[in-house]
Amino acid sequence: MSGAKKTRIALVDDQPLYLEMLSSVLGGHPNIELVLAAAGAAEARANLRPGMVDVAILDVDLADGNGVGLGISLRRADPNIGIMLLSSQDVMELLLDLPADVRRGWSYLSKTASLSTQSLVDAIEATARGETVLDGELVRRARPREGSLLAQLSKRQYEVLQLVAQGLSNTGVAEALEISARSVENHLNAIYTALEIPEGRNARVSAVLKLVEESSRA
């Protein structure tokens, strides 16, 4: 990856040990440039300017504010910034309440997830591209609610959607399921139709959000 453009990130977390840990892990990765590590919302607002970072990684619960509110204000100031929320609680449904003008390119990971560094970096890079990535453990526990559009998906279609929700590309899904990339594309088109999602730039994000909306986690 020599010479490849690095993904610029800001970290905002009011837990000093967690902030230090993330800063150390991500700041040392060759694909990541750590621009800011802030201990709260006020520090982030004071130091972040539009265009400075590609992704802001925000704790949901900050002592001086809320990560969701901070993310909305950052996105409205910089439409190109990706937002990744972190929380020790399962509050993934927060993504459903985002205003329509900022909904694209938000991700959610659990602080308790067993993620490798590379998996975290992959999720950050997908968020920077405007995708929505969900915590893998929570996605694997998700089951469609009875009577929902999600429940109409075939077993294979649901497997494809779960992998897409975890940030895998079409190629990555194909490799995981040992099927062709064309088959993945066909499955996705069928998923969009079943979930009544219009084709377009945000279809992938809308499908992932539909998974959050119409599933429950034990």
Q: What does the model show?
A:
- The termini are far apart.
- The protein is globular, with a radius of gyration of 17 Å.
- The chain is of the alpha/beta class and 218 residues long.
- 42% of the residues lie in helices and 18% in strands.
- The model has no long low-confidence stretch (mean pLDDT 92).
- The protein contains nine helices and nine strands.
Percentage of β-strand residues: 15-25%
How many domain regions? 2
Largest sheet: 5 strands, parallel
Rounded Rg = 17 Å
Question: Summed up, what is this model?
Answer:
The chain has helices spanning 16-27, 41-47, 67-77, 117-128, 136-141, 155-165, 170-177, 181-194, 203-213; strands at residues 7-12, 32-38, 55-59, 61-62, 65-66, 82-87, 106-110, 142-144, 215-217.
Reconstruct the topology from this structure:
Elements: E1 7-12, H1 16-27, E2 32-38, H2 41-47, E3 55-59, E4 61-62, E5 65-66, H3 67-77, E6 82-87, E7 106-110, H4 117-128, H5 136-141, E8 142-144, H6 155-165, H7 170-177, H8 181-194, H9 203-213, E9 215-217
Parallel strand pairs: 1-2, 1-3, 3-6, 6-7
Antiparallel strand pairs: 4-5, 8-9
